[in-house]
Design brief:
Elements: H1 2-11, E1 15-18, H2 25-34, E2 36-39, E3 50-53, H3 60-68, E4 72-75, H4 79-93, E5 97-101, H5 107-114, E6 120-123, H6 126-131, E7 140-144, H7 150-163, H8 177-189, E8 195-199, H9 205-216, E9 221-224, E10 241-245, H10 251-263, H11 285-293
Parallel strand pairs: 1-2, 1-3, 3-4, 5-6, 5-7, 8-9, 8-10
Helix pairs in contact: 1-11, 4-5, 8-9
């Protein structure tokens, strides 16, 4: 999100963005109002124009097609996703079969598997892991999408470890720290509230995982884009509500949900104990250099 904002500041509209920069309806609509143009693929961008690649990452073939169209590219891929891409290349170059745990059709999976399409196999479920037809003694490694359920992923990995005792794991956990922290917070909330509202969009993988984590703990949960989607019928007989958000949902949306409750007479609204997140990443070089120079592209 911030990269597109800075690109608009540096160059003015329109700024083209391949796919949604993050999976949040409010973020996308806000950027569209400012002059961002979201396109399905790089071929929808006028030749010679600038395009921002989303946080979910893209396959090398996308970069190649962008160069062929003389596009100036700004790669806003999340560094945590870039790490997974690097791992895919690393293991593929060394002759490993790379098992990628994730959801078919998700942009992040398309980008990761595009790094080594001949060496990667998608594993979505434990059943997929059990059905793999590979020599158990062959070199195998696994990677994961960054926005998965921690518990579901652990179950899949357990199956893979039993089937392939020599399987190589990522050097460091692939699931995003924000995803992990939020799932842990939902588990902690489950014993303290009677209903959970998750602020996030329906195409947000990490937001949907929060719903799954809550329901697995027996806690009723609903995904909402903002306070306008709250159904008051959900609150019948409910005294304590938990509110959390997906990693890409602006904090202002959570405040709006809290304000919705305050406007209806709720007097006790407090922050739940949580892990402090203070990780920050630098803007991509083209945007950073332009802003520092104080000039246009």
């Amino acid at each position: 999100m911030a990269t597109v904002e800075k690109a608009l500041e540096a160059w003015g509209p329109p700024v083209y963005v391949r796919r949604q920069i993050v999976h949040n309806l409010h973020v996308v609509r806000d950027l569209e109002r400012r002059g961002a143009v979201f396109v399905e693929n790089e071929e929808d961008v006028p030749e010679g124009a600038a395009v921002v690649f989303s946080a979910h990452g893209v396959a090398p073939a996308v970069h190649e097609r962008a160069r062929a169209r003389r596009l100036s590219t700004v790669d806003a891929t999340c560094p945590l996703v870039t790490k997974v891409h690097s791992e895919a290349r690393h293991y593929a170059e060394r002759g490993y079969t790379v098992l990628v745990i994730g959801h078919a059709g998700h942009e992040e999976i398309e980008g990761t598997m595009g790094e080594a399409p001949e060496a990667t196999i998608l594993v979505e479920t434990c059943a997929d892991a059990r059905a793999l037809e590979l020599d158990p003694d062959s070199p195998v490694a696994y990677l994961t999408q960054t926005t998965l359920s921690v518990d579901d992923t652990a179950e899949i990995v357990d199956v893979l470890r039993r089937r392939f005792p020599g399987i190589v794991a990522p050097r460091k956990e692939d699931i995003c720290y924000a995803t992990t922290n939020r799932q842990a917070a939902v588990k902690a909330l489950a014993s303290e509230v009677e209903l959970l509202l998750v602020v996030g969009s329906s195409n947000s993988s990490n937001s949907n995982r929060l719903i799954e984590v809550a329901r697995a703990a027996g806690l009723p949960a609903h995904l909402i884009d903002d306070e306008s989607e709250i159904d008051e019928a959900w609150l019948d007989g409910v005294e304590t509500v938990g509110v959390t958000s997906g990693a890409s949902a602006p904090e202002s949306l959570v405040h709006r949900v809290c304000a919705w409750f305050a406007a209806r007479g709720v007097t006790e609204i407090r922050a739940h104990r949580s892990v402090e997140e203070n990780v920050s990443f630098r803007f991509p070089a083209p945007v950073r250099d332009t802003l520092e120079a104080g000039g246009p592209w």
